[in-house]
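Re: beginner question about structure tokens

> Can someone show what the tokenized structure looks like for a real chain? I only ever see the sequence side.

Sure, here's an example I had lying around. Input first:
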Amino acid sequence: MTLSTLTQHEAATRSDLLEVQRYDIAVDMTGLLEGEIFSSVSTITFTCSQPGATTFVDVAMDVARATLNGEEVDVSQAADGRLPLPALAADNVLVVEASTTNTGTGEGILRTVDPTDKLVYVWTSLEPDEARRVWACFDQPDLKAPHRFVVTAPSSWLVTSNGAPESIEDAEGSDARVWTYPDTPRLSTYVVVVNAGPFHEVRRQHDGYDLGFYCRQSLVPILERDLDELVTLTRQGLAFFGEQFGYPFPQERYDQVFVPNLGGAMENWGCVTYGDGQLFRTPPTHAQRSVRAEFVFHEMAHMWFGDLVTMQWWDDLWLNEAFASWAANWGMAGASEFTDQWATFLAVSKRTAYEMDMSPARHPIRSDVADVSSAMANFDAITYVKGQSVLHQLVAYIGEEAFVAGLRDYFSRYAFSNTRLDDLMDCYSRASGRDLSAWTSAWLDEAGTDVISLDGDELVVETTNGDAPRPHNLDIAVFDTSGDELVAVGRSSHEVTGPRTPVELPAGDLRLVNAGDYTFAAVKPDAVSLEQMLSRIDQLVDPLDRALVAATAGQLLLLGHAAPRDVAAALTRALASETSPALIEPFLAQALVVADRWAPAAESPDLLRGLADAVLGLVELPDAQQAALRTLAASASTDEHWKVLEAAADRATDLDLAWRMTTRRSELGDYDDDRVRRLLESDPDPDAGMRRLAVLAARPDVEAKEEVWRAFFVDYSVPASRETLVLGSTFWRPGQAELLAPFTHRYLDELHTLKGGLLNQGLTIRAMYPLGAGDASFLAAAEKAVEDTNLSSYARNQLGANSFVLRRILQARQL
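And the corresponding structure tokens:
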């Protein structure tokens, strides 16, 4: 079905015309137990400010019948996801009966059969305008209304929605139950939800909240293993945000549902869904636990920013995602065990925003969004990562006290309504006493990354577009390097307001610009500072300072001012003595990427061997052991490396390390089909087939590559999770460039026919870009494809950003 995309003009016109009083939605999921049919009857009660006017209701389904105020509506006119309505009265009741069999692609709804026990699970995920695929509605964020759901589902299933059910009764004449839910608060259409299946359910009562946790039956041991941690994180987040925002989460029930094949998570009011890849099949490392905690805090922050108060239109989408991302890091650092989360954010996430913001794909954080499809092009690192970095800079600019006061004013003033950016900035201005109009324009309306350096006693800011520099509040840390150990001699704060700003600094050869990482800017150190920071990164006491050096080295790769061998050496040196769990895995990951993907083919094996040698020193450290062994499995190059891995695999109680070793052996030409079969037979993970695919993906063999390719682009059988990205990078081995050359061009062709919802398509586009394996010929074709308007805006956006990085990789290999 070809669907129209709602334009901003259409949305504004309809918003001026209509006010929705309520949705009463009856859902029938019994057809999904053994088939593909999902049915709904949507009753919409609304008023019209201009009686006699006409409009349309969104419904991307097969419409069986519709009535408006008791009169039949001609459903044959339904087309492109819209049903035209006849002349409206002042008060209206619209009833639309519809069904769909499009339940296998993840577009609004996904039906999944667990391969281990054949049980069926169903979830809905409705952002941005996918609600129309499951029931009729006015599918735009500023037509909020209470939703009341009545769900008929097979009797063996549990149903979750936005609150606790009022009643659960047996259905008459069928093996089904009817779940009736009370009215939700006034919510936008994209944050309501209905999930169903034979879920395992656990409930905990804490601090006045009824906390629910759900997973499929095959993952019960995993959820039970991590339950205490998930409960603790949920309690910490609800308490922290409720206090800081001056507005406790206003309902007792808070559910978190781990569902199969969801590429990310969704902030449904009171009922968050996560892809169940977040239930790590192997006991998770510190970094994996940190990622999951960030998901929990991020989606929870949306309860306030996005759900309670919602942007009027998608041009302020960044507000939703950037705020939730910033609040997640803020909350984790302030309320959880992950106290070094800002160092982790800098070491792990911020690089992705610099890569995109330095590339031709850069765009302002805030921009005009003509229609919904255009909005989705901006679901990227600039929205999430640069956006939250800019909010972090705003905290530095006005102070945390004023920032929090502004938020409290905002939530109190606009609860359950819609806002624009100006509403939020007005709250901040009142709280801080500062006019923020120029700050807002400079940071949100201009694309590109400023580059900051020290020229003697002046801070110099270079812009990418020739505009005046943004205002930056930043710190500079100075260290004396004359002895064997670094000595901190001063740390000072500076407000930068032009191209050159005088600063007074104490004497010292190592000067760290943007210490504390308060602003979003690339830093170009002076030659002496660069030499000292790379050679003495391990001597910096503050984890955030060490993260800053590693991040600066990554920026210099992008700027073409550092060679991969020098960056790899610095990271290997840092790892020799790194003790912070917040940084060990990020540094391991960055070192592996530089040695494997950025380095020239002639240098990569030696750099990987050097990294593996350094990792041997971490294998016996409890906080680093698991991550070290995983990195060793990806870089093993000598008999000593394999000896250590084999000994660890013999001691392991799970199969994760064995799979990783098998994948590395496959890459090196040692593929053993019997070994893979034995691992697959002994692995209880319902997604163990992904591990087999990874072994095939690494293999330098055309038939193996073809099987993985079919899984991605023909069968769509790759479950959506963070492991999708790992599978993609395993496929595109830089050392197999000649073998992979034909596949690189096929990737561009596949972008025209991708299926599935936004989250899952986005994962595939990012995962299967041949970063590190593409050559100059592919790069030229990819850069040309960025201009192909037949591709989705999102695909073109990602092509542009990744092609910029690939060009930098190819250039760095020449240094």
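Each token stands for a local structural state, so reading them left to right follows the chain. The two ends are 51 Å apart (CA to CA).
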